[in-house]
Amino acid sequence: MKSISQLLSRRQSVKSIQQEDNAEPTVLAIDDESADKIFTALSLGTTRSVLTSLYKKTKTASEISDDAETSLQNVSYHLTKLKENNLVEVADIWYSDQGKEMKVYKPADEALVLFAGEDLTQSTVLDSIRSVIGVVATFSVVSVLINHLFRRFASSSTPVPAGVGESLGEVTTYILPSGAVFFLGTLFAAVVLIGIRYHQERRL
């Protein structure tokens, strides 16, 4: 049996409020007053499940109800609680063929981070998160580039004359292992980052 959400024509509303996802992680100290409200809002397992589900994919209340195998009324209760605490928001509005409005929900922030520490502040924790994301992104890009260059080099090497493969057996194609690709990419990116940091410190 198909759910209501699966029967929707999923046309975007002209009133669509979906925007580019430029949200940053919400960072809260564990003793912050706002953290108390979040702990209270997420005290029930179903509420946490709804929020976790939306971090995986934006969904309508009907889709959440199907995934969680619970009633639409129950899902609406937990969504209301999450909205009141600014943990989720409406990302878009769909209309069925009958013109029924269906709200699509998404997390209000890219991530929710709670921290505790004497010398930590919201700004320092957020800066650390940005640094980690930047380093991981750099490593990934460099790894892909190294793998691409290696494959290009291997494919452009001197071709084997006709008939040689028959006498010498199969020609082996060298492919750089994924672990080696990541290691070389990490090493290269680390050298670049260290160089940039050294250059910045010399300018101070």
Q: What can you see in these coordinates?
A:
The protein has 204 residues and is α+β, with helices and mostly antiparallel strands. It has two domains: 5-115, Orthogonal Bundle (Arc Repressor Mutant, subunit A), CATH 1.10.10; 122-157 and 171-203. It has helices spanning 33-41, 45-56, 61-68, 72-84, 122-155, 164-168, 178-203, and strands at 11-12, 26-29, 59-60, 88-95, 101-107, 112-115. The chain has a four-stranded antiparallel β-sheet. The chain has a two-stranded parallel ribbon with strand order 2-6. The protein is extended and about 60 Å long. The N and C termini lie far apart (67 Å). The model is unreliable at 1-22 and 164-169 (pLDDT under 50).
Give the total of domains: 2
Helical percentage: 40-55%
Sheet with the most strands, sense and barrel status: 4 strands, antiparallel
Strand content: 5-15%
Describe the global form: extended
Cα-atom radius of gyration: 26 Å
Instruction: Give the beta-strand count.
Output: 6
CATH architecture of the largest domain: Orthogonal Bundle
Number of helices: 7
User: Unreliable segments (pLDDT under 50, ≥5 consecutive)?
Assistant: 1-22, 164-169
Q: Looking at this structure, what is the CATH superfamily of the largest domain?
A: Winged helix-like DNA-binding domain superfamily/Winged helix DNA-binding domain
Query: What is CATH's topology name of the largest domain?
Result: Arc Repressor Mutant, subunit A
